Amino acid sequence: MSKTWFITGTSSGLGRILAERALARGDQVFATARKLAALDELKARYPERLHTLALELTDTAGIRQAVDTAFAQAGRIDLVVSNAGYGLVGAAEELSDAQIERQLATNLLGSIQIIRAALPHLRHQGGGRIVQVSSEGGQVAYPGFSLYHASKWGIEGFVETVAQEVAGFGIDFILAEPGPTDTRFGSGIDYAQGLPEYAGTPADNVRTAIRSDAFPVKGDPERTMEVLMRVIDQPNPPLRLALGSAAYDNIHAALTKRLQVLDDYKREAFLADKAAE
């Protein structure tokens, strides 16, 4: 059976590939982008099944209007994919207040509001699935990405909580966690103005590697979306899905290290309890 999707951030990258794959297999897609002209070619190919909506993730009222419009036109939407976002690179001290506010407003608050706007509709129709495109950066951290990680770790905590709140309504979630993938993500990165004191530090080294295309990128975007769609079609998918060997290896290493430290300090943890009476 064909499905109906609502996907944000479809002008390029993973969101565009996902929309194209859904349309190619006969599904209906409500696709959002900041500039709708980026979807003209796709709209020409699928005039009946592609519906485009302008959306700026920092506009909460606009988010609600776009989601309400899509559900009203579709009648039922099976899959809501919160994909739009961008990267911010720079040591925490180097970032401007405006850069910090925009990063969190887009990646974290925008994603939260997409989900909040969709929940009443999904609850009313008796269920549905929300796919939040996160990143391996929702469970691991690179120097120079502090605010990006704050947004991804934040949305993962939000989703894990909401998934428990709405499971009884037939609504479930997937947190997609790609590793570095060969998309246009790098071209949309916002860079902080570097401070001379940070020259040669880990944060500066990461920034230099990204700008010079020396940062290791293993992920293939088409294969990433092929895997994601296969998991999306499963009746009982996992809450978290690592995508790419780098994502798997990095997340596995980070979780193993955290678990080891947790076990090493088990005695101290238990000593914080109230004394037995």
UniProtKB/TrEMBL annotation:
<comment type="similarity">
    <text>Belongs to the short-chain dehydrogenases/reductases (SDR) family.</text>
</comment>
<dbReference type="InterPro" id="IPR002347">
    <property type="entry name" value="SDR_fam"/>
</dbReference>
<dbReference type="InterPro" id="IPR036291">
    <property type="entry name" value="NAD(P)-bd_dom_sf"/>
</dbReference>
<dbReference type="Pfam" id="PF00106">
    <property type="entry name" value="adh_short"/>
</dbReference>
<keyword id="KW-0560">Oxidoreductase</keyword>
<dbReference type="InterPro" id="IPR051911">
    <property type="entry name" value="SDR_oxidoreductase"/>
</dbReference>
<protein>
    <submittedName>
        <fullName>SDR family oxidoreductase</fullName>
    </submittedName>
</protein>
